[in-house]
């Protein structure tokens, strides 16, 4: 049936018929791919293996069906067999390109050549047709729901990227107000899980099939849904945080969390982004994609070799590999070869002759060679060691014969929050101060399986703490406490309390939208620890009574030792505090003031800790899977892989954004991982070191060189407050499964007495709190490198913070194309004027609350940091003695006041207020400072006006600001007055506003 082999200028197409015996009968024909007489054709995109994971599973991987191909019996996988009937029914006279049939899979040379022209095959198809598997009612409903969400998905996603901040919409009931969508029902949420659990979405080859297609549609019975709608919906559910709400709804309804783990929602969203890349100037995303850092700060115009055209391919491949994690492929070589079509597209766009030789598909090479060739190309093209950010724990590596510095890309891996992708606003890590290789001349060399580089020995691992799994499942923190006994009370590298430096290291000092982390506090970490230990105590009591609890408390000597060394500074509870808790819950007999609490007191205690538990765990779940905290012999805190051992060395390596853990093997080193550390500045002297590959023959000698970085023996290099980690594998799935089993055990436990009932309630409450986060943890934000880990925080997560802190995660600055100012603002010097009366309550801040406090209510005062830089000022007012008062000293704050206004749609309004600069001398160095008025309804925003505060300002004078604007369709609306500096706050300024008036024009 394959009479002759074909090369790069021809391909086969197949016609599909169904004979009288209901057997597919197909005919192959060869065509010249560039011929003007080439017929129109569609390309089929599908998965070779069974289309669904788990239930429903229609057949096994080994099952086959038989068709007629050019008159001969030919075995195909059942999923393709089913698809042929749908294709014949939907497109009876169309020719198709189908990989399993149109390429002779037994001819490795032909397979290599055809894989190399995938861009031309899929780009030349009139339509790419996607087959997810046999239709079902639930699958059809999932497509319908995705189409409904897609109406706003793309616009909402672009707004999130522009704002560089996650909206954390974790509750489905918020969908109406936030996005104008009816909340998902249980059946709709369940159907979405069914849709995104289709194996097709997680298949490696799908990436280029989608990215290179002109028109691509998913077919299901009579439905045909554009992939762009499905991809945008997936990205929206992920970035908005609604995936957390879906998980909570389904878990509460009794759905098995393991079904949620099989979702490919994160992969689907990322595939959509690659499609937008490949569209180039045709993409609606072209203006926002540059706002995402996909490659740990590496860009084409800053790398030494990448500035030349031939280096572009390596840079793009690095970008793809750091972005596209967690995709399945039966042949690990396809991790690279499955992107060949996109690479060919890049070559064509940049006018290059061909793909670099070592990246060209060649199935005669083994997996280790293919991965090694790709790593070598990337390192040499970029002139950077940023690729090391995707190296994973050696205990989890699967490819034999692979050098320790070459990434082994597994089908399941946790993302790397430090290596990217991240919002550009987070900044980049550059521990060696040499990401900009063009400026610093990074010195490394690839010699076959040996990577020779220059580095600085920072220290050796002295002690290790527990990994996340023992913390969650067993409330075990004794090793962490014993490790911290070695720490000084003040962490001298950052001048922070050691407890704060410790937890910041564990979360890589970021809270998804901000680095360093702004929202969490030591109290968050302490409450999380206490709740996890409380669950362990509850479980001990259920299994062994009070004696079991006493035995557990006796294992916590290290926590008491830590408290004795650092009184009232420890992040861990003492046995005395835990004993008091045990008495309150009846786990131990009460002594003195330690008495049994009422059920109301018990519930109140749980609720006071629960939100902090969820928030801190949501952060740790993105950073601590397969990792554990450590301390070095020099006192540095670090977050390292589980396989790290005491004595392993931590190095700063020229050209690598983050520190490396390495294991000495004589004159050689084996790379363990990139790690997160907590430090500030230190002086570096770079020396030669050598990373050798497995199976390297002969001695591995370092390069002898005394030249230090930037040609000196010492240079200042910044080790960021948090740095990169490495990528994990399926263990993130295992950890989530472990957590889900805890939930199952807690929910299934039964109460036989009042005391046992409260015990079960405690255990269940804690477990369910963790479970609701863990359900979607591995599918999160851009950075949480599997999860962008859906470790989103909710606005009711952190009880220890103020309401202003929590509200700082709201979206504030998105503008739409319609955002216009109908009339330019005017200013006039103050004259006597009466207080306003209009749409706002308490417009002059003269009405106290029920306690007699002038807090501005119902105005809400909020800020992006704490303490708030906005307050109600007494003794300063325009017509009275109070005003809203901003004290701006840095760009970190974006303080605002806001109040809901009952606007009507498409009406003209007049808005005015009086403003006052309370500085004695003219502020200097202000850049990008302004007061903006934002009109928000749901997810839509307008900016009716902006007061520029970067010019020469009138001091100690009340000045009036007036604007007119059309409400358009944003009614009613939250009216926000926000003060911020996007460039520099210079010497700072103090601003008061008063008498805010909003009236409808007649």
Automatic annotation (TrEMBL):
Compositional bias segments (type: Low complexity): 814-837
Gene3D superfamilies: Galactose-binding domain-like
Domain Heterokaryon incompatibility: 41-209
Region annotated Disordered, chain positions: 814-839
Short name of one Pfam family: HET
Matching PANTHER family: ANKYRIN REPEAT DOMAIN-CONTAINING PROTEIN 39 HOMOLOG-RELATED, HET DOMAIN PROTEIN (AFU_ORTHOLOGUE AFUA_8G01020)
Protein name: Heterokaryon incompatibility (Het-6OR allele)
């Amino acid at each position: 049936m394959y009479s002759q082999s074909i090369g790069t200028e021809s391909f086969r197409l197949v016609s599909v018929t169904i004979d009288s015996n209901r057997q597919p009968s197909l005919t192959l024909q060869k065509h010249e791919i560039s011929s003007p007489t080439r017929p129109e054709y569609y390309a089929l995109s599908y998965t070779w293996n069974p289309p669904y994971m788990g239930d429903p599973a229609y057949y096994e991987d080994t099952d086959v069906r038989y068709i007629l191909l050019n008159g001969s019996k030919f075995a195909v996988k059942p999923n393709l067999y089913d698809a042929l009937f749908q294709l014949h029914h939907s497109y009876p006279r169309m020719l198709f390109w189908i990989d399993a049939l149109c390429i002779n899979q037994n001819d490795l040379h032909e397979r290599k050549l055809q894989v190399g022209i995938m861009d031309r095959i899929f780009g030349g198809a009139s339509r790419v047709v996607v087959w997810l598997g046999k239709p079902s009612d639930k699958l059809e409903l999932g497509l319908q729901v995705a189409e409904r969400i897609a109406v706003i998905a793309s616009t909402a996603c672009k707004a999130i990227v522009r704002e560089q901040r996650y909206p954390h919409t974790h509750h489905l009931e918020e969908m109406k107000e936030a996005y104008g969508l009816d909340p998902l029902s249980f059946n709709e949420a369940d159907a979405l899980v069914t849709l995104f659990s289709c194996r097709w979405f997680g298949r490696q080859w799908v990436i280029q099939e989608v990215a290179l297609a002109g028109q691509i549609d998913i077919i299901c019975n009579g439905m045909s849904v554009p992939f762009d709608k499905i991809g945008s919906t997936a990205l929206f559910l992920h970035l908005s945080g609604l995936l957390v709400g879906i998980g909570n709804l389904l878990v509460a309804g009794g759905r098995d969390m393991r079904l949620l783990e099989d979702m490919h929602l994160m992969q689907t969203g990322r595939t959509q982004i690659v499609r937008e890349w490949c569209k180039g100037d045709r993409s609606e995303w072209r203006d926002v994609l540059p706002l995402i850092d996909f490659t740990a700060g590496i860009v084409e115009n800053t790398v030494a070799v990448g500035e030349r055209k031939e280096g572009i391919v390596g840079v793009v491949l690095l970008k793809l590999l750091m972005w596209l994690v967690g995709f399945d492929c039966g042949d690990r070589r396809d991790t690279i070869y499955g992107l060949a079509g996109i690479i060919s597209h890049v070559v064509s766009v940049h006018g290059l002759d061909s793909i670099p030789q070592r990246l060209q598909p060649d199935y005669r090479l083994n997996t280790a060679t293919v991965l090694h060739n790709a790593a070598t190309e990337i390192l040499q093209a970029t002139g950077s060691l940023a690729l090391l950010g995707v190296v994973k724990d050696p205990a989890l590596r699967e490819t034999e014969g692979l050098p320790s510095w070459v990434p082994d890309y597994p089908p399941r891996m946790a993302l790397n929050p430090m290596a990217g992708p991240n919002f550009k606003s987070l900044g980049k890590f550059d521990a060696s101060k040499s990401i900009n290789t063009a400026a610093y001349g990074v010195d490394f060399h690839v010699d076959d399986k040996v990577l020779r580089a220059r580095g600085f020995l920072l220290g050796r691992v002295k002690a290790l703490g527990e990994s996340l799994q023992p913390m969650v499942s067993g409330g075990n923190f004794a090793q962490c406490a014993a490790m911290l006994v070695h720490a000084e009370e003040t962490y001298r590298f950052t001048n922070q309390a050691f407890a704060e430096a410790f937890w910041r290291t564990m979360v890589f000092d970021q809270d998804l939208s901000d680095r360093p982390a702004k929202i969490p506090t030591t109290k968050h970490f302490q409450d999380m620890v206490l709740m996890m230990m409380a669950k362990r105590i509850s479980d001990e009591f259920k299994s062994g009574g009070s004696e079991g609890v006493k035995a557990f408390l006796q294992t916590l000597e290290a926590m008491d030792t830590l408290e004795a060394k650092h009184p009232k500074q420890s992040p861990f509870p003492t046995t005395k505090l835990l004993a008091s808790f045990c008495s309150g819950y009846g786990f131990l007999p009460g002594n003195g003031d330690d008495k049994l609490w009422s059920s109301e007191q018990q519930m109140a205690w749980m609720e006071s800790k629960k939100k902090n538990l969820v928030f801190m765990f949501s952060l740790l779940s993105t950073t601590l899977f397969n990792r554990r905290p450590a301390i070095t012999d020099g006192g540095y805190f670090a977050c390292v892989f589980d396989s790290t051992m005491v004595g392993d060395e931590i190095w700063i390596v020229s050209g690598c954004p983050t520190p490396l853990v390495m294991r000495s093997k004589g004159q050689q080193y084996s790379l363990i991982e990139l790690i997160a550390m907590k430090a500030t500045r230190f002086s570096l002297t770079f020396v030669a070191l050598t990373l050798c590959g497995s199976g390297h023959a002969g001695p591995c000698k370092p390069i002898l060189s005394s030249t230090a970085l930037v040609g000196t023996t010492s240079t200042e290099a910044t080790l960021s407050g948090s740095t990169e980690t490495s990528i994990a594998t399926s263990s993130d799935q295992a950890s989530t499964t472990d957590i889900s089993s805890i939930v199952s055990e807690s929910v299934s436990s039964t109460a036989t007495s009042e005391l046992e009932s409260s015990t079960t309630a405690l255990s269940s409450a804690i477990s369910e709190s963790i479970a609701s986060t863990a359900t979607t943890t591995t599918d999160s934000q851009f950075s949480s490198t599997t999860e962008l880990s859906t470790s989103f925080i909710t606005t009711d997560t952190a009880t220890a913070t103020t309401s202003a802190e929590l509200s700082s995660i709201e979206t504030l600055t998105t503008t739409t194309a319609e955002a216009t100012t109908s009339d330019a603002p005017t200013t006039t010097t103050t004259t006597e004027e009466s207080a306003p009366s209009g749409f706002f309550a308490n417009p002059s801040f003269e009405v106290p609350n029920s306690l007699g406090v002038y807090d501005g209510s119902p105005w809400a005062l909020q800020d992006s940091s704490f303490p708030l830089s906005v307050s109600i000022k007494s003794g300063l007012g325009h017509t009275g003695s109070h005003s809203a008062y901003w004290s701006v000293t840095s760009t970190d704050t974006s303080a605002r006041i806001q109040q809901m206004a009952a606007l009507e749609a498409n009406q003209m309004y007049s808005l005015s207020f009086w403003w006052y600069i309370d500085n004695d001398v003219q502020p200097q160095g202000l850049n990008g400072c302004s007061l903006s008025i934002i009109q928000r309804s749901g997810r839509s925003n307008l900016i009716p006006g902006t007061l520029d505060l970067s010019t020469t300002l009138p001091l100690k004078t009340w000045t009036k600001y007036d604007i007119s604007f059309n409400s358009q369709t944003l009614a009613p609306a939250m009216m926000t007055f926000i003060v911020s500096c996007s460039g520099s706050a210079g010497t700072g300024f103090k601003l008061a506003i008063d008498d805010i008036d909003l009236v409808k024009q007649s």
